[in-house]
């Protein structure tokens, strides 16, 4: 007992209550995330249009699908935990079972916290992206974090579950669905980022006359630089072709009376050069 790490400064009888509270807190965080995404969707439709609206809707829809998959995962995980406790506690109470398996219980609490935190971070990142105050890369990182925390929750639940448990197979299926939805968030984010960047590059509607003139001059400079570089590469290509034709012609021009170059002598019949004689 003295050698066991003091990872949680709580009494063992409180451990079971903490599991239930943490799972309930995670469920509430996910429900709140879904509501916030719906609000962001409504705000995006009012404040944006065209390509930006299309990108925002696609990203927020993929985030909503991910939240729904996480919600189902947490519900299934809760059912599996109840099944594990009921089949393993025997005559002991639920609190005594959690206290006896405190290390496993702490793993469940940690995994549940990670899932709830990942969902909250994803929504906050999506909010910043929709408001054009955040980075698309944040959404991608949050999606990867959610996939990792989901794997942690499944692994923690799988430790004490029966292999034939239906809830375990459902949980694994939910985990695969979460991974798929997280991949969809990454894909929609990357495609949206490319679409927005391409549009912003060619959008000159908000520029003043002086700004337009400056951009025009800078673009002309780039065009001249590229043309000069292109001309240099063409000259180099011409010289390479000239040398190639010269070498090919030297070997193939026997019809004009020119002899082919003599083959290189074999190494075995090379003569030793004469030694220098003393005066």
Automatic annotation (TrEMBL):
Q: Name one GO cellular component term.
A: clathrin-coated vesicle
Which GO terms of type biological process are on file? actin filament organization; clathrin coat assembly; endocytosis
Q: Which Pfam families match?
A: I_LWEQ
- The residue stretches assigned to a coiled coil in this entry are 207-243
- List UniProt keywords, sorted A-Z: Coiled coil, Cytoplasm
Q: Where in the cell is it found?
A: Cytoplasm
SUPFAM superfamilies in the record, alphabetically?
A: I/LWEQ domain
The name under which this protein is listed is HIP1R protein
Q: In which organism is this protein found?
A: Chordeiles acutipennis (Lesser nighthawk)
Q: Which gene encodes it?
A: Hip1r
């Amino acid at each position: 007992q003295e050698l066991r790490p003091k990872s949680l400064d709580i009494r063992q009888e409180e451990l079971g209550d903490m599991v239930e509270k943490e799972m309930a807190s995670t469920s509430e965080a996910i429900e709140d995330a879904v509501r916030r995404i719906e609000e962001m969707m409504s705000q995006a439709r009012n404040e944006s249009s065209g390509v930006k609206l299309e990108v925002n809707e696609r990203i927020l829809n993929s985030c909503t699908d991910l939240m729904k998959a996480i919600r189902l995962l947490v519900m299934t995980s809760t059912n599996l935990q109840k099944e594990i406790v009921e089949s393993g506690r025997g005559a002991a109470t639920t609190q005594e079972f959690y206290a006896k398996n405190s290390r496993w219980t702490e793993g469940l609490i940690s995994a549940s916290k990670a899932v709830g935190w990942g969902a909250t971070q994803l929504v906050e990142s999506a909010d910043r992206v929709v408001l054009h105050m955040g980075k698309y890369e944040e959404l991608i990182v949050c999606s990867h974090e959610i996939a990792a925390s989901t794997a942690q929750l499944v692994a923690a639940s799988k430790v004490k579950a029966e292999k034939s448990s239906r809830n375990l197979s459902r949980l694994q299926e939910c985990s695969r669905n979460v991974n798929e939805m997280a991949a969809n968030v990454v894909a929609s984010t990357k495609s949206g980022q490319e679409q927005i960047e391409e549009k912003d590059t060619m959008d000159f509607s908000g520029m003043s006359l002086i700004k337009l003139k400056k951009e025009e001059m800078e673009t002309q400079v780039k065009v001249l630089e590229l043309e000069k570089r292109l001309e240099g590469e063409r000259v180099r290509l011409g010289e390479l072709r000239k040398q190639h034709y010269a070498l090919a012609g030297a070997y193939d021009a026997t019809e004009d009376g020119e002899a082919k170059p003599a083959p290189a002598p074999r190494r075995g019949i090379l003569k030793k050069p004469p030694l220098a004689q003393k005066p």
